[in-house]
Structure formats: structure tokens, C-alpha cells
Amino acid sequence: MERFFRYTLALLISTVAILQFVQVITRYVFETPVMGLEEVAVIPTLWLYVLGAVNASREDTQIRANVLEIFLSTERARRILLVLSESCSLVISAWLTWWAWDYFRYAWRVDKETPTLYLPTLIYESALFFGLFFMSLYVAWHLYGHIRTLTRGGNALEVPLDHEHPHTNETDEFQLLGQREDKNHG
Questions:
Q1: pTM for the predicted model, two decimal places
Q2: What residue numbers bound the domain in which 43 lies?
Q3: How many structural domains are present in the chain?
């Protein structure tokens, strides 16, 4: 999955950049805008946003306000807080997915087209439903992992939290990247 998201997101952001570059050059340099380019640019742009959000859900790297963690003393308390927050996230994302499903069904039934190129708008209107659906699945997966960790118990859950040097996914990522660089250069 990592490779799929890496290459897909890179392709989408490159496509958006190229389309915007073409639009700026043709509009402001040649003073002849390309008709329908905005309609085409919407497709990779929306899919880029949505797949980026799905990737953040997959990696569990969404922006969070972890203010309450300051007041927690053990890993068990942090995991309980994670279960509560992931449960709220799952309820909200499932609710939004349901709304997106209704909109997807409407878009499918109406079968609209773009005004200039007559592209089916379902191409980009479906992104919201599919993105929210997969985000909900990843939130449910992370919730399951937190619950499983809590139910297994163990001494690791009783370890006091180090508020001076918190452990984050980013520190793991930097350590992993450092190990890869050492293998490549050493």
C-alpha cells in the first residue's frame, strides 16, 4: 500500500502542477487559455486531496490536538484516550460516509457532465465517498489495534509516559530513514 500511495500521490500532484503550468503559460504568455483545462484539472486535484486524507488515515498521521496527553501518567491511560478519540472519529467518519454515499447515489442517478468537455462529473464526485469509506475503514482498524493492545495488557501499559521526550510516529520514521541512509552510505 505504501508504494501505491507514494506513486499515485506523486503522479497526481505532478499532473496538477503540469496542468496549472500549462494554464498559466497559455493564458498569460500566449493570451489564449485552453478551453476545458479547468474541468480536467479538477479531477486530479480532488483525487489528490482525498487520497492524501486516506493516506493520512492509513498512516495514522492526521493532525491532532493531543492536549489531554499532558495530564496522563501511563501508557494505559494514553491508550484509553486513543480508544475514545478513535471511537469519536469512527462515528463521525461513518456519518460523513453515509452522507457521501447519498451524494454518490444522487450523482450516479443524475449523470451530470462538465459544460465544455462533457466529462462525467461522477469521476470526481465519487472521490468523496470512496475516500471517506476508506478513511472509516482505517479508523476502525486503528481502533481495533488500540482495543487489542488494551485487552492484552502487560507491563508495557504501566510504563510512565515521558512528557519531556514523547514518542511519536515521526521519531520512528526519522530513525528508520537514518538506518536506511547508514546502509546506503556505510
A1: 0.81
A2: 2-63+72-161
A3: 1
